[in-house]
Structures are given as C-alpha cells and as structure tokens.
Design a protein that fits this description.
CATH superfamily of chain A: MetI-like
CATH architecture of chain A: Orthogonal Bundle
Distance between the termini of chain B: 8 Å
Strand content of chain A: under 5%
CATH class of chain A: Mainly Alpha
CATH class of the largest domain in chain B: Mainly Alpha
Helix content of chain A: 55-70%
Distance between the termini of chain A: 46 Å
Strand content of chain B: under 5%
Largest interface: A-B, 48 and 53 residues
Number of helices of chain A: 12
CATH architecture of the largest domain in chain B: Orthogonal Bundle
Radius of gyration of chain B: 24 Å
Number of domains of chain A: 1
Radius of gyration of chain A: 23 Å
Order of helices and strands of chain B: HHHHHHHHHHHH
Structural class of chain B: mainly alpha
Shape of chain A: elongated
Number of strands of chain A: 2
Number of helices of chain B: 12
Structural class of chain A: mainly alpha
CATH superfamily of the largest domain in chain B: MetI-like
Oligomer: heterodimer
C-alpha cells in the first residue's frame, strides 16, 4: 500500500486514495462516477445514444424513400401511417428526419473535429513557445474572433461555393479560435509543472514534451469543448443550409427541410416543426452531456461558451 | 491608462487591416464572376471585358487592393456593382433596422438574463433555480431560425396577435427581438448565476455579513458589482454574436437589414458591397470589444493596465 498521495485532477492514468470509501480508483473511474451522478448528464447521454441508434438503424426500418416524391400522399397530417406527416412532395417526414440526422450529425462532428485539428495545435504552440510565435498565433486568433462567427462562416461558404460540406468547413472556422484560446490557457498553466522541467532535463525534445506531457494534461478542456461545440456546430451548419448556403433541396438535411417547410407554415405546420425539433433535441442532449462532463472533469474549469 | 488605450487602438487598426486583406482575397479568389452574373441575369450581351476594365477587375489583385484601401481611408468604399449605389449608402440605409433589432435584443437579454441569474443564485437549489437553469439550457440549444418560425406560427398565424413579417411598426419588432435575444439571454443567466455564486463565497462577503449589513445590501452593494465582470465581457461579445445572429432572424422575418444585404451580396459576388459591409461590421465589433475592455476599469479598480 502506498502512502496517501493525492494527485492533481487531470493527471492521466494516476490513481488516488479515496478517504471515504477506501476504494482504489483510477482517474477515469472517478470522472465517470461524477458524471453518472448527474441526472441531467445521464439524460443527455441517453438521448444521444438513442438518437444515434435511431439514425443508424431507423432508415432501414422505414418503408418510405427520403427523396422520391409521391404526389398522391402530399401534406398528410401526422397519422398512424405517417407518424410526423408528409411534406409538399408526399415524402414521409419521419423518414427524412432519420436520414437527415445522418447528414446533420456527421456534419456537426466533422466540423468540430476539423476545428479541433487546427485549433488545438495552434493553442499548444502558442502556450508552449510563447514569445513571438505565441504572439503571432494569438493575433491571428484575434482576427478570426474579430468577425462575428456566422459572418465568417457565410464568407467562407461564399468563397468555397454553397454545399453541405463547405457549410461544415465554414462552421469549423469559428470553433478554431475557441479551441486555440482555451488550450493555450491550459497549456500555460501546465507548462510550469515540475514534470515538464524534468522531461526537459532528461533531454526530451519540444515535440515530445508537448505530445507526451502537455497534451494529456490539457485533454479535459478539449473533451468538454468538443462535446459543447458539436451542438453549436449542428445549429450553425443547419442555419447555413436554411439560408441557402448549403446543400441542395432533395437532400433531407434538417435546415433545408425547415426552409422548404416554412412556406407551408400556416396550414401544414408539421413540415417545418419536426425537423427543427430534431435539431433542438440533439443540441440539448449535447449541451446536457457537455455541462456534466465539464463539472465532472474539473469543477474549476471555466470554459466560456460563446 | 492612456498608453494602454493607444496600444489597444493600434492593435485594433492592425486587426482591421488584416481582416480587410483577408476578406478581399477570399472574395476575389472565389469562383464566380460578378460581371458574368450581372449580364446573365439581365439577358443583355455586351462586351464583358469592357465592363471589367471599367470596374478595374482586370488589374492585378494587389493593385486592386491598394486602390480599395486608399479610397476606403478617404471614406469612399466604391459603388455596388448591382445597384450602382454607393456602398456606404446601401449599408447605412439597412443598418438602422439591424441595429434596432440587435440593441433591443441585447437590452432584453441583459435585463431578463441578469434578473433570472441573480434570482437563481440567491435562491440556489430552489424551484426558481431549477426552472431558470432548465429553461436556459433549452435557450442555448435553440436553433434561432426554428424558434422564429414557431413564434410566428403561434402568435401571428394561429392567434393573429402580431403581424407575420415586415419591419415598420413596433409590433413587427416583438417576435424578432424575442427570437434573437433567446440564446444571449440564456447564456447571460447561466453566467450571472455561476459568477454571483462564486463571489458570494468570498471572504469579504462574510465580513460584510458579519458586521451586520442587511442581506440585500450585501448582495447589491458588494457581491453584484464584482460578479458583473464576466457578465459584461460576455454581454459585449454577445453584441457581435447578435449582429451575426441577426442574419438568420432577418431571413425568417423578412426584415431588410444588414445581414440579408451581406448574404445577397456574397451570393451575387458584389465585391465592393461585401468588402464595405464586412469592414463596417468588423469595425463595429472591434470597437465594442475595446469598450468592453475599458469598462473593466470602472467595474474593478484592482485591474491594472500595463
């Protein structure tokens, strides 16, 4: 039995003594226990799992086609045959929402991964090297932040041409500065630790120190930002699709479904209502999980949502 | 203090210069030719090269940028290719609508958000707290464009209380303002709550209570002031977000504002109009951020400017 040592939270793979229960736990177990203690986070997680299941399996179970028009079934209100009704071309709204979920959720995840792949290295470099490199990077980030996010996204889509993937790339552009800023802050506080100094003393290079010693210790904010930003990305990507800066109509993307459904709002309210509800539920679940993760990983962590 | 302001102004000018270069190159590198689009739409067959020559689009990009920048410094941002009206005129004829919408939304968001956040922190873990936190999670997860449509469906189409679209009387402003303010309201409420809860645990609050001050006096005189700093930061950033989010709201409610102007200008490749409008918007955003930073000085005299 080791002596009672408590490691700072966020130290990967280390273990700690829990005084109350005398159970030997790893950091990962502690975080998971904290997470599952929060009912709202568990609720978010359940919704996400159910939804992923629905959009992966659901389209195979539905007897309807998401894009083929069937004019005889135009504007059927929600019924037993069409749970969420049919749209202006007689297509089943539920089928389209399930197919659209694949597109919208993939686009959201893709765009945050892209933003993370650019933002995290920038933040690590800015925090670790400091000096002129750090200054230059942060000025670049300031320029990115000097545009209102959606305007930047619109400009990028304008440059690349409207398509679903370009909308996702554009949305990635405004998660870059958020990742960079938070990771830089975390890196600055980790950099001063003794183990970084020790690694340098035994001759580790900068890249190895960043990858092996800094990155694992700034993972917590990255995980939280990742979860929270997927929700934001889904909203903005479908928003771009909504204003016409995204995919083209037969595609069952949620934002597109909303924009074609808005013309029939007065009488056929279900066409526009349900795709939006799908966006709201997805983003809500992501935010509930993200908040829970933040509280569980590090209560002191103050990540500002923008 | 003066030195700090001067330096911040210099950085702001640099940021604006960098963003103007970025916007300029992005919009010019984009595929699509404004002249072709113009003649294609009007159906006239004219000498395209002559028009390009007249507009100076055949010159090398740095030459074009230099021309744009020197004119911009003299307050001349050129003419819109489509309407042939001065960019400044186009922009400022639309600006009041967007500003009215953004400012009204910000005021609503600050008032309701702060009151809800304060109530939530004062009566932490009570029913009020749960209701506020629950609704604010919904608020930050809300797709703005869908909320707009739903409000329109309920209050304009079903109940007939408010006009559907347009922007002439105060009645037209109610729904767009509520729509646009929701996300900001929710994030301000969340931030106000956590910030106030944190300040309430400080030693000087205990001192103030211990010397017998009334609870409300402690709350409003001592705690609130110090908990305002993060809230002001975010409120400032929110104004930029609101200007951006106005794009979607303007689309939903058919409001002739700056957001629609920029989206239309990008879609029709109206270069001067895009450059000019984005430059104006970025300037506004940078100025607001500067004002926010300076306001810390009045809120928290401990902050030193170096």
């Amino acid at each position: 039995m080791a002596t009672e040592v408590s490691y700072p939270s966020g130290t990967r793979g280390k273990s700690e003594w829990s005084l109350s229960t005398k159970v030997y736990t790893t950091e990962r177990q502690r975080v998971l226990r904290q997470l599952f203690r929060r009912r709202t986070a568990v609720l978010g997680l359940c919704i996400i799992v159910l939804e992923l299941l629905a959009i992966v399996v659901g389209p195979f179970l539905m007897p309807y086609d998401p894009t083929n028009p069937s004019m005889a079934d135009r504007f059927q209100p929600p019924s037993r045959k069409h749970a969420l009704g049919t749209d202006e071309l007689g297509r089943d709204v539920l089928t389209r929402i399930l197919h659209g979920g694949r597109i919208s959720v993939t686009a959201g995840i893709f765009s945050v991964i892209l933003g993370m792949l650019v933002g995290v290295p920038l933040g690590l470099a800015a925090g670790y090297f400091g000096g002129r490199i750090g200054e230059t990077i942060m000025r670049f980030i300031d320029v990115l932040l000097s545009f209102p996010g959606i305007l930047l996204a619109i400009l990028i889509v304008g440059t690349l041409g409207p398509s679903m993937w370009n909308a996702a790339i554009a949305v990635a552009a405004f998660s870059v500065p958020i990742f960079a800023r938070v990771v830089r802050g975390a890196t600055l506080s980790v950099k001063g630790n003794d183990y970084v100094e020790a690694a340098r003393c035994v001759g580790c290079g900068d890249v190895r120190i960043i990858y092996r010693h800094i990155l694992p210790n700034v993972l917590a904010p990255i995980v939280v930002l990742f979860t929270l930003n997927i929700g934001v990305a889904i909203i903005y990507a479908s928003g771009l699709n909504f204003v016409g800066l995204g995919g083209k109509p037969p595609m069952p993307e949620w934002g597109l479904m909303l924009s074609s459904g808005r013309s029939y709002l007065r009488h056929e309210w279900w066409v526009a209502t349900f795709p939006g509800l799908a966006i709201l539920i997805t983003v809500l679940a992501m935010n509930l999980l993200g908040d829970g993760l933040r509280d569980a990983l590090d209560p002191r962590l103050r990540i500002q949502r923008l | 203090m003066t030195a700090y302001i001067v330096r911040r102004l210099l950085v702001s000018v640099l940021v604006l210069f960098a963003s103007s270069v970025a916007v300029f190159s992005m919009i010019h590198l984009a595929p699509g030719d404004p002249v072709e689009m113009l003649t294609f739409e009007s159906g006239q067959i004219t000498d395209l090269d002559a028009i390009r020559e007249r507009l100076g689009l055949n010159d090398p990009l740095p030459v074009q940028y230099f021309r744009f920048a020197t004119r911009a410094l003299r307050g001349d941002l050129g003419h819109s290719i489509r309407s042939n009206r001065p960019v400044t005129e186009e922009f400022f004829s639309r600006l009041p609508n967007t500003l009215k919408l953004a400012v009204a939304s910000l005021i609503l968001a600050i008032i309701v958000g702060m009151l809800a956040g304060i109530a939530s922190a004062v009566w932490a873990n009570s029913l009020i707290d749960y209701v506020v936190m629950f609704s604010s999670v919904f608020g930050i997860s809300m797709p703005v464009f869908w909320l707009g449509l739903m409000l329109m469906l309920l209050f304009s189409l079903r109940l007939g209380w408010l006009p559907v679209s347009g922007f002439s009387t105060w009645k037209h402003m109610i729904l767009p303002t509520i729509t646009l303010s929701t996300i900001s309201m929710a994030s301000i409420a969340r931030l106000m709550r956590s910030s106030l809860l944190e300040v309430l645990q400080e030693d000087y609050i205990r001192t103030a209570k211990a010397k017998g001050l009334a609870y409300w006096s402690v709350l409003f005189r001592h705690a609130l002031r110090n908990s305002l700093i993060p809230v002001v930061t975010v409120a400032g950033l929110q104004l930029g977000m609101l200007l951006g989010g106005a794009v979607l709201t303007e689309m939903v409610f058919a409001i002739p504002g700056v957001g629609r102007l920029v989206v239309d200008a990008i879609l029709t490749r109206d270069f001067p109009l895009v450059q000019g409008s984005v430059l104006f918007l970025a300037t506004g955003f940078v100025l607001v951020n500067l004002l926010v930073d300076l306001s810390y000085f009045y809120l928290d005299p401990r902050i030193q400017y170096t």
